[in-house]
Amino acid sequence: MTTNTDQPATHGETTLKAHLRQEIQAGMAAARDPENAGLPDLWARKTTIYSPWYTRTCPECKQKFREGDQVRLCPKCGQVFHDDDQYVLHCWKTRFDRDGVCQKPRYDPIAEVKRPGCDYCWPGTFPDTEGHAGEKKLPVQGVGDRKVEDQFRRGLDNVWSPYGGEKVLKVPEDAPIVGHQCPWCRFQFRAGDRAVKCPCGKCNTYLHDDIFRHLTCWNEWNKSDKKEYCPTTGARIQRLTEGEDER
Q1: Which CATH number fits domain 158-239: 3.40.1350, 1.10.3470, 3.30.40, 1.10.150?
Q2: Per residue in 132-142, pLDDT tens?
Q3: H runs (alpha helix) in the chain
């Protein structure tokens, strides 16, 4: 007597396999980004280099998500928006205040298809806030913690020097380079970033030199074989030789 082991899967088996696959994928994603694993819907998340959205573009401000950026995820489609007081990037609130939904249907001219969008409507509050909509809780960090952080930053400034001893600019809010891309990491400059100007003397290009934010583009660029050429114009850079007086 023979038995047929190739019977088609029942609907229940198919559903179970899909559920298990979804759980496994969720577990793998949590293992890759443990800092944000297991957080409830709408909870603020801190971007790490392991976050799936790291280096992707926020659909509202069009800036790439950098390490340390605070974001929120749509609980229905997973779309990520900035919600970061440090950089005044309140993209989540801006999007829902204006459109009412996560993403409106739109036509994608590149794929030549119509995207359905996401009709999720934010109720106006977050599980990690209290009081009225958008009113953040007081930070957990105490005065002592802030003093330690300030001391760490000052100590870092003392021991960390840019290649060649170039002058470091702390980017002010009204600086022309705010919103411009660093030619090395391709992240946009934001107010408060630290940067060094290209030494060619003929352009207004800056590169990040911000170890606190893990953006050491200036030093990395100078360690590469591209340091002899302006990252914007491509012109060869005439550097001073050792012992030559600066003019």
Answers
A1: 3.30.40
A2: 444 444 344 44
A3: 11-32, 91-99, 143-159, 217-222
* Alpha carbons 137 and 153: distance in angstroms, whole number: 25
125-173, pLDDT tens digit by residue? 999 875 444 444 434 444 456 677 677 777 777 777 888 888 999 999 9
**Consecutive H or E run containing 81:** strand 80-82
Q: What is the CATH number of domain 23-115?
A: 3.30.40.10
Entry pTM: 0.75
CA distance 170 to 158: 15
Higher pLDDT, residue 9 or 60: 60
Using an 8 Å Cβ cutoff, are 118 and 76 in contact? yes
DSSP code, position 70: E
Domain assignments of the chain as residue spans, ordered by start:
23-115, 158-239
Q: How far apart, in whole angstroms, are the C-alpha atoms of residue 157 and residue 207?
A: 17
Contact 203, 232 (CB under 8 A): yes
